[in-house]
């Protein structure tokens, strides 16, 4: 079991180095076993994939937050289903939904559920059906920081709102010092970075600020950044890179991008102690989510102001968006096969090692049932 977990971690971490559009195909029998223990474990994982009639190319795009999970999933999937090539382009949630509703992709990844107008647009390419939300990946949105001489930092929603609205501009500000009485905060300008592209991560981050700090965050929210000031970068990887290389910086991105020494903020909530950005703490919050979609749509309502100890308030759920009916005949077998795998126990089992939270049992069970009925 330990060997398998280490192999899974290696697969996930190896996938982190992949950038841009992903195009992975199986390269032959040597990929899945040559007597090596790690390869044997990967072969066992791939052996649990049900390829069915899957074949050809599968185009998908959207959420950059889930890219590291997609990388790990695709590596396993194509090792088993050698007749399938999967191309996932992490263009951002907004661009992914647009590509889907224009019929350019078999499915999209989005960190926000479909809006009514997007569902309506999807009916044009989902013959006799519509686009639906399948919650597949969870996790905390980490607040990464690079403050000279500071290793541990506590912030709350009002302070974060003021930082990202350019109201608090220096790291030794009284509001930050009050939350960090033992820290040696430098006289250093704050460099706040936000997404330049339409992003479900931005949508969830601003929903949190609006819910937890309504007096300090007056913007409507959505996939596009609305506040004034600050600097921008493309994708979650772009924000993480800016934090890593820019002294005085702070930004938001999915936890799996907080690597290579990037420190993350502990968030003060109504609980007794500040909460760290961890998979387990995010799972505690996601477990309280409610399904608010109708029919086969499984859109969730998240609680951004949890009071329970250890519940991390800043979470997102990434949905795979697909037609419930009217999928293209040439891509439907591969779409169902791949989605079935990533929703399976094995697929969800890869998430924790890659820095993500698997979906709670009650939710993922509904997802599996919905996938089996795709047509």
Keywords for this entry:
D-Maltodextrin-Binding Protein, domain 2; single chain; 10-stranded mixed beta sheet; two-stranded parallel sheet; elongated; alpha/beta; 13 helices; 375 residues; 2 domains; disordered N terminus
Write up this protein.
By secondary structure, the protein is an alpha/beta fold. The chain has two domains: 2-138 and 320-372, 3-Layer(aba) Sandwich (D-Maltodextrin-Binding Protein, domain 2), CATH 3.40.190.10; 141-285, Periplasmic binding protein-like II (D-Maltodextrin-Binding Protein, domain 2, 3-Layer(aba) Sandwich), CATH 3.40.190. Helix content is 35%, strand content 19%. It has 13 helices and 14 strands. The strands form three sheets. Strands 1, 2, 3, 4, 5, 7, 8, 9, 10 and 14 form a ten-stranded mixed beta sheet that branches. The chain has a two-stranded parallel sheet with strand order 6-11. The chain is elongated and about 60 Å long. The chain starts with a helix and ends with a helix. Mean pLDDT is 88; it is low at 1-44.
Summary of the model, kept short:
With 375 residues, the protein is an alpha/beta fold. Helices cover 35% and strands 19% of the residues.
Overall pLDDT level: 88
Order of helices and strands: HEHEHEHEHEEHHEHEHEEEHEEEHHH
Termini separation comes to 37 Å
Number of helix segments? Answer: 13
CATH superfamily of the largest domain: Periplasmic binding protein-like II
CATH fold type of the largest domain? D-Maltodextrin-Binding Protein, domain 2
Shape summary: elongated
Structural domain tally: 2
Low-confidence stretches: 1-44
Q: Helicity, in percent? A: 25-40%
Q: Percent of residues in beta strands?
A: 15-25%
Assembly of the depicted chains: single chain
SS class: alpha/beta
Q: Please give the largest β-sheet.
A: 10 strands, mixed
């Amino acid at each position: 079991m330990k060997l398998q977990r280490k192999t899974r971690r290696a697969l996930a971490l190896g996938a982190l180095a992949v950038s841009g559009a992903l195009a992975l195909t199986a390269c032959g029998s040597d990929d899945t076993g040559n007597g090596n223990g790690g390869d044997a474990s990967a072969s066992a994982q791939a052996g649990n994939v049900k390829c069915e009639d899957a074949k050809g190319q599968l185009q998908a795009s959207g959420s950059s937050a889930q890219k590291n999970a997609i990388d790990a999933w695709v590596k396993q999937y194509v090792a088993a289903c050698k007749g399938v090539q999967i191309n996932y382009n992490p263009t951002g949630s907004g661009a992914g939904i647009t590509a889907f509703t224009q019929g350019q992709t078999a499915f999209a990844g989005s960190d926000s559920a479909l809006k009514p107008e997007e569902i309506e647009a999807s009916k044009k390419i989902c013959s006799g059906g519509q686009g639906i939300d399948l919650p597949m990946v969870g996790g905390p949105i980490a607040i990464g920081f690079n403050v000279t001489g500071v290793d541990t930092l506590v912030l709350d929603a009002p302070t974060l709102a003021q930082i990202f609205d350019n109201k608090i501009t220096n790291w030794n500000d009284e509001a930050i010092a009050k939350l960090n009485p033992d820290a040696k905060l430098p006289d250093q300008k704050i460099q706040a970075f936000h997404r330049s592209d339409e992003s479900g991560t931005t949508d969830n981050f601003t929903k949190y600020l609006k819910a937890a700090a309504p007096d300090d965050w007056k913007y409507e929210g959505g996939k596009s950044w609305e506040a004034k000031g600050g600097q921008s970068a493309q994708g979650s990887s772009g924000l993480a890179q800016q934090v890593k290389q820019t002294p005085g910086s702070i930004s938001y991105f999915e936890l799996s991008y907080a690597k290579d020494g990037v420190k993350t903020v502990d968030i003060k909530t109504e609980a007794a102690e500040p909460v760290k950005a961890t998979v387990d703490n995010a799972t505690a919050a996601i477990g309280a989510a409610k399904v608010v979609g109708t029919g086969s749509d499984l859109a969730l309502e998240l609680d951004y102001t949890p009071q329970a100890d250890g519940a991390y308030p800043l979470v997102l759920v990434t949905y795979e968006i697909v037609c419930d009916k009217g999928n293209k005949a040439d891509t439907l077998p591969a779409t169902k096969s791949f989605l079935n795998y990533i929703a399976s126990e094995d697929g969800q089992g890869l998430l924790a090692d890659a820095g993500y939270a698997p979906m709670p049992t009650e939710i993922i069970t509904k997802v599996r049932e919905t996938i089996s009925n795709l047509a």
